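Input record (one chain):
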Amino acid sequence: MPSTEGFSDFFYASPDGLQLHARVYGEANSGHWPVVCLPGLTRNCRDFHELAVHLSTRAERKVVAFDYRGRGQSAYDPDISHYTVGVEAGDILAGLAALGIEDAAFIGTSRGGLIIHVLGAMRPVALKAIVLNDIGPVVEAGGLAHIRSYLDRAPKPKTRTEAVGAQRGAHGSDFPGLAEADWERMVSALYRETAEGLMPDFDPKLVDTLAGLDLSQKLPDLWPQFEALAAMPLLAIRGANSKLLSAETLEQMRKRHPCIETIMVEGQGHAPFLETGGLPGAIAAFLDQAELKFR
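The corresponding structure, as predicted from the sequence alone:
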């Protein structure tokens, strides 16, 4: 089980009155850009725990990892039409205002990276540097279909051992580079323990938000929003086995962004575990260099 030390829980109100949650690491740290961590569609702030500990202790940065509405310790929304990237971007801005953070470096995994694109349009001055984890302005329909298919038939394990086996069975072919401890951390982040056993830590109705997507058609892209980020230092991370971010899209991102750096993570798919291998050090070094150059 990952340590629960090194952070405090922060609760705030969304613009429409829901109680939302974030973890704050290194609360007393100052002098460097803070870091904001945004998880994937059904994920939560716990995905970033090990990375946040690294950045808040070794890199001495304040780190804020958010739970979107309907995930983790944030309240579920009775209206599932509010489970959108635009609404969630507004929630993040409300959280930053409540924390007194005017600007920060942003790390976004999957949906979190889409939210960063929207934040760049809503409030570009809030973004100092960007890390996109296996996401770009083009989302491959096949990759999204894979996610929808998994969520539609997601297993219901009763024990942690069953959960680890289920996750490895579903994703092991895309993640041959993971060790047992990595799968165990994934389970700790994905599930919560209840009197009835393990439960996925998100509103089950989130799955319904994908039901109406016609994945036989090309999805709308975000190239204009991506190109609006061209003045900001950007690190793009791609899992070598990713179905959501293609190698072709990553190459186009290189051509269209003058300040981009890229990392390919072998043995992982969508989305790479940011606490594995040399990723924490690489992310910390990228942020340090960006701050020296662009502060």
